[in-house]
Amino acid sequence: MLIKEFIKAQRFLVGNHNKKSLEYLHKRGLSDETIEKFGIGYNDDFKLFNTPDIENCVTIPYYDMRNRVVAYYCRSINKDTAIK
Known about the structure:
The model has no long low-confidence stretch (mean pLDDT 79). The chain is built from three helices and three strands, in the order αααβββ. The chain has helices spanning 2-14, 19-27, 32-38, and strands spanning 41-43, 57-63, 69-76. It is of the alpha+beta class. A hairpin with a 5-residue loop joins strand 2 (57-63) and strand 3. The radius of gyration is 12 Å and the shape is globular.
């Protein structure tokens, strides 16, 4: 059941990029093709499951052997914002 929730969240996060998040990823050397291929998303203020608030961060999914999203790594794109 949890995997279905991860898939649902992943679809939202991948489609949620804005100019600032894409500029951040491009400055880090990622192309649009790489962002799409690996499903890197963006979270502005969406609360992921029951985790602490994670805002203004890119989300990098972890996949299992069946290519299903099972976890996320989040990285803040603001220097002065820490992930809580």
